[in-house]
UniProtKB/TrEMBL annotation:
Record's protein name: Cysteine desulfurase IscS
Record-listed pyridoxal 5'-phosphate binding positions: A73, T74, N153, Q181, S201, A202, H203, T242
GO cellular component, one term: L-cysteine desulfurase complex
Listed PROSITE patterns: AA_TRANSFER_CLASS_5 (PS00595)
Alphabetized UniProt keyword annotations: 2Fe-2S, Cytoplasm, Iron, Iron-sulfur, Metal-binding, Pyridoxal phosphate, Transferase
Protein's cellular compartments: Cytoplasm
Organism: Arcticibacter svalbardensis MN12-7
Gene Ontology biological-process annotations: [2Fe-2S] cluster assembly
Pathway given in the UniProt record: Cofactor biosynthesis; iron-sulfur cluster biosynthesis
Gene that encodes it: iscS
Residues with N6-(pyridoxal phosphate)lysine modification: K204
Pfam families for the chain: Aminotran_5 (PF00266)
Binding site for [2Fe-2S] cluster: C327
Complexes and interactors: Homodimer. Forms a heterotetramer with IscU, interacts with other sulfur acceptors.
Keyword hit for Electron transport: no
Length: 398
């Protein structure tokens, strides 16, 4: 077993070696610009990009012409929300999203609020799920877009996507879905899921960093968006800029591998997550955060009462995990996602996110169980708060 153990696959995934191998020729021998129409260097690059489009389209059941390559999910989210807002603002200025969205969505919505946008942030229940009736109630004649994520990056909680899509369709609204955590992990099908725009990113599915896609529906309905980057008219005018050919080739290969591996990989990763969860729940006063049923296979977000998550992380020198979200763990604020589920500051501060991926082994999970159990017991043994909690419990029993 190699140390440290990487259990932060929701922050980013290691690249699959097959992905790297597929990318390598496109840095040197096949370096052409996919927009060069006059020679074989360009044609070879364009062919590779077209092949990647096929591989990605197959994974999410889209048409190749419905994919716009971007620099990642953050850019795709910006393009979707700002692009729809600018295109449809004649119809209305109201967007409905949710409090547990990724910062890419929340900050984009905040930006639009500065320029006249009206945003509703739906709450979630204690499982982290939106309540479809609340969504329906929030719709006004000014509403143009619903922006709800597929699966949450901190808890792995999967939203009721088909129900949301039904409400969007009934009310003639567009439905944008940040599916960055879901694509490649659970079956995502833009047609049967009823999604009109969707963002995802290569580095969350064993591909390279710095490349992603925005899916933009072309039929039923035909979605139009205003470009956010001008110059050259690449990607049918929706995203100008020379294509990142090696990155796109890598994303394509990563998508193909996910299509091939999905069923067996899901079973294996679910087995490992459930083993880890069962063992950690043996520790006293320990709680799983978010729904345990509507959840991604590899994610476990867990709170150990009266154990500071940051301290626990430091104690686990040989295990890479995350306390709260990777994007906010630089700050000492408790995770806004966990707070939205109704957790106290204390329990939110005591949360650890474990993300299991393709390259984790059962041996690593066994090691993690052993090390975490030891660390939690040690931190509690030296914690006055824990002693008080124990004493109170004893008193209550008498
Ligand atoms: C990682 C992530 C993003 C950002 O993706 P990048 O490609 O790193 O910009 C957006 N949304 C969710 C849910 C994510 O997990």
């Amino acid at each position: 077993m190699n140390l440290p153990v990487y259990l932060d696959n929701n922050a980013t995934t290691p690249m699959d070696p097959e992905v790297l191998e597929t990318m390598l020729p496109y840095f040197m021998q096949k370096f052409g610009n996919a927009a060069s129409k006059n020679h074989s260097f360009g044609w070879i690059a364009e062919e590779a990009v077209d092949h990647a489009r096929k591989q990605i389209a197959a994974l999410i059941n889209a048409q190749e012409t419905e994919l716009v390559f971007t620099s990642g999910a953050t850019e795709a989210v910006n393009l979707a929300i700002k692009g729809v807002y600018e295109m449809y603002k004649g119809k209305g200025n109201h967007i409905i999203t949710c409090v547990t969205e990724h910062k890419a969505v929340l900050d984009t919505c905040k930006h639009l609020e500065q320029s006249g946008g009206n945003i509703t942030y739906l709450p979630v229940d204690e499982d982290g799920l939106i309540i479809p009736e609340e969504l329906e109630k929030a719709i006004t004649p000014q509403t143009i877009l619903i922006a709800i994520m597929y699966a949450n990056n901190e808890t792995g909680v999967i939203q009721p996507i088909k129900e949301i899509a039904k409400i969007a369709k009934k009310n003639d609204l567009l439905f944008f879905c940040d599916a960055t955590q879901a694509v490649g992990k659970v079956p995502v099908d833009v047609l049967s899921d009823g999604i009109h725009l969707m963002a995802c990113s290569a580095h969350k599915l064993y591909g390279p960093k710095g490349v992603g896609i925005l899916y933009v529906r072309r039929k039923n309905p035909r979605v139009k968006i205003t470009a956010q980057i001008d110059g050259g008219g690449h990607e049918r005018g929706m995203r100008s800029g020379t294509l990142n050919v090696p990155g796109i080739v890598g994303l394509g290969k990563a998508a193909e591998l996910c299509s091939q591996k999905s069923d067996s990989e899901t079973l294996r990763i679910t087995f490992l997550r459930d083993k880890l969860e069962r063992a950690l729940l043996q520790i006293e006063a320990t709680f799983v955060n978010g729904s345990r049923t509507s959840r991604l296979p590899g994610v476990l977000n867990i709170s150990f009462q009266h154990v500071n998550g940051q301290a626990l992380m430091m104690a686990l020198k040989n295990i890479a995990v995350s306390s709260g979200s990777a994007c906010t763990s630089a700050s000492l604020e408790p995770s806004y996602v966990l707070k939205s589920l109704g957790l106290s500051d204390d329990l939110a501060h005591s949360a650890i996110r474990l993300g299991i991926g393709r390259f984790n082994t059962e041996e690593e999970i066994d090691y993690t169980i052993e090390q975490m159990t030891k660390a939690v017991n040690h931190l509690r043994a030296i914690s006055p708060l824990w002693q008080m909690y124990k004493d109170e419990n004893e008193l209550n029993k008498v």
